[in-house]
Design goal:
Strand content: under 5%
Number of helices: 10
Helix content: 55-70%
Shape: globular
Radius of gyration: 16 Å
Oligomer: single chain
Largest sheet: none
Number of strands: 0
Distance between the termini: 50 Å
Structural class: mainly alpha
Amino acid sequence: MRKQTFDRLCRILGEGDRRKIERATEVAMETLDNPAMIPDLIKCLSEENGTVVSHAAHAVMQIGAEDPSLFQNCVDELLAALRLHRAWEVGEQVPKVLCLLELTDQQADEAIETLVKQIDNRSAIAAACALSGLKRMTERGLYPATSMDRLIAAALKSPRKAVAARARQLTRQGDTRQE
C-alpha cells in the first residue's frame, strides 16, 4: 500500500507547471485528513522530477502551517531532505516547518548547521528562508542571539536583494536577543 501511495502522490504532484501550486493544496488537504501519508510526501522531496519536489515542498509547508505536529515524528527525514535538497523550493518551505517542531539537541544542531550553510545557497529565496528559520530558532533559545546578529549584519550587506530584504525585515521585527 505504501508504494501505491507514494506513486500516486508523485503522479499528482508531477502534474502541471513547477512554478505554480497546481495540486499541492489538494495533496496537503488529503494528507491532513490522512497523516499516514506524511512519510510518502516527505519522500517526494527527494524525487528526481523537479515538479514533484516543488509541489511536495509546497504541500509540506501548507500542512505545517495548519498542523506542524503531524511532522513531529519525521524530523530526521525533514532534516535529511533539507540537507540534501537540490531544489530551492525545499530550502524555502521545509525550514518553515522545522522551526515549529520540538527538536532534540542533536536535531537542533543539525538544523542550525544546515540553515547557516543554506544562507550561501545560490537560491536567494532559500537563503532568505534560512535566515528566517534561524531567527525563529533564536527566539526559541536554540541559536545564540549574537550569532544571529552577525548573520543579519552580513545579510544586510548582501548583493542579493531577497537576502538583504529579509535581513531588513528581521531587523524591523526587533532584537534577536532573549530577555
